Amino acid sequence: MKVGIYPGSFDPVTCGHLDIIERAAKQVDFLIVAVLYNYQKGNGLFTVDERKEMLSAVTSHLDNVEIDSFSGLLVDYAKAKNTNLIIRGLRSGVDLEAEMQLAQMNKKLMLDIETIFLLTAPEHRFVSSSSVRELSLFQRLPEGIVPTYVEEQLKNKWNKR
Ligand code: PNS
After folding, report:
1. Total count of domains within the chain
2. DSSP designation for 2
3. Helix/strand number for the chain, H first, E second
4. Which residue range forms the structural domain that includes residue 84?
5. Residue 74 near ligand 1, beta carbon < 6 Å
6. Could you give the percent of the chain with pLDDT greater than 70?
7. CATH number, domain with residue 134
8. pTM score > 0.85 for this model?
9. Which has the closest alpha carbon to 34: 26, 59, 45?
10. Torsion angle defined by CA atoms of residues 88, 127, 40 and 31, in that order, rounded to the nearest 10 degrees
């Protein structure tokens, strides 16, 4: 069985992420979307549990996708999941530089790890979770950037603050 891991921060999941998840799920038998507990980035806007809940909600139509979280190194997580396949999305040349470093460092850490890249759909090239967080704070998030469910969760989050 071909298992792939799509790791990320997903704070929150965007339509760009969802497009990658849907396309990646067609390329593997089973896809694990893994949210990083990132101690270096602080706590973020949403907790890891909230991010996982949103990911579960927006991927409920995909029966070969599981939502999980991990801490520590991605290669160790991949090993624990008995796979060597990492999937990442690429929006631009800027992403490519950073992703190349990550993929090559992961390969140094674990020789048989493979990272494959899916090009972000053109309509999502400019979408990032950080711009989503900022625009939603000012209630200026355009439609079609995040799934409707995530839009509601963003509104709830800012209303509570
Ligand atoms: O959505 P992001 O923030 O671009 O995802 C980055 C992620 C989670 C893929 C990356 O930070 C990661 O894999 N972190 C785990 C720690 C690790 O394995 N680092 C690799 C060696 S530098």
Report:
1. 1
2. -
3. 6, 5
4. 3-160
5. yes
6. 98
7. 3.40.50.620
8. yes
9. 59
10. -30
Question: pLDDT tens digit string along 44-95?
Answer: 999 999 999 999 999 999 999 999 999 999 999 999 999 999 999 999 999 9
> Ligand 1 within 6 A of 14 CB?
no
Mutate to test the pocket of ligand 1, among 5, 48, 74, 87 (most ligand atoms within 8 A of CB): 74
- Please give the single-letter amino acid code of residue 19: D
- Cα diameter, the chain: 47
CA dist 67 and 31 (Å) reads: 9
Distance 151 CA to ligand 1 centre (A): 25
